[in-house]
UniProtKB/TrEMBL annotation:
It catalyses: L-seryl-[protein] + ATP = O-phospho-L-seryl-[protein] + ADP + H(+); L-threonyl-[protein] + ATP = O-phospho-L-threonyl-[protein] + ADP + H(+). Its EC number is 2.7.11.1. SUPFAM superfamilies: ATPase domain of HSP90 chaperone/DNA topoisomerase II/histidine kinase (SSF55874). Gene3D superfamilies: Histidine kinase-like ATPase, C-terminal domain (3.30.565.10). Keywords: ATP-binding, Kinase, Nucleotide-binding, Serine/threonine-protein kinase, Sporulation, Transferase. Residues 37-141 form the Histidine kinase/HSP90-like ATPase domain. One of its GO terms (molecular function) is sigma factor antagonist activity. HAMAP family: Anti_sigma_F. This is Anti-sigma F factor. Pfam families: HATPase_c_2 (PF13581). Belongs to the anti-sigma-factor family. One of its GO terms (biological process) is sporulation resulting in formation of a cellular spore.
């Protein structure tokens, strides 16, 4: 696929790096002249994806998370990838309120939030090999006749 611009980050799977990823992606997104709501939506979805990697993929071990962003026209694509434990049943994992950590403070809404704030979310995962989450969002609202 031909993209107008792209960037790629790799960082340790530490919860402190979730904020770094949010700011970096928001800065990259700024070239698309997004609304504040669009920036907040992308940052929220990204936060959920990165937090899933930190909490679930590596079970407390510090490994690498990769975030890649691509721009094509008015569409932003965000990929979040880990090489962790993977997800045995992606469909089940994407169900609202499903969590593999019921004894913790996890609420099982990560994928639901990603889907709510982005236009599309696709998850590929293999147990023992890792997970890749691809999220897409069209940036730039269409003005109606009263706003033009």
């Amino acid at each position: 696929m031909e993209y107008e611009n792209r960037m790629k980050l790799e960082f340790d799977s530490r919860s402190a790096n979730e904020g770094f990823a949010r700011v970096a992606v928001a800065a990259f997104l700024s070239q698309m002249n997004p609304t504040l709501e669009e920036v907040a939506d992308v940052k929220t979805a990204l936060s959920e994806a990165v937090t899933n990697c930190v909490v679930h993929a590596y079970e407390g071990k510090v490994e690498k998370i990769t975030v890649e962003c691509m721009i094509r026209g008015q569409e932003l694509t965000v990929l979040v990838e880990d090489k962790g434990c993977g997800i045995a049943d992606v469909r089940q994992a994407m169900e609202p309120l499903f969590t593999t950590k019921p004894d913790s403070e996890r609420c099982g809404m990560g994928f639901a939030f990603m889907e709510a704030f982005m236009d599309s979310v696709e998850v590929e995962s293999k147990p023992g090999e890792g997970t890749k989450v691809e999220m897409r969002k069209k940036i730039g609202r269409i003005l109606n006749k009263f706003e033009q």
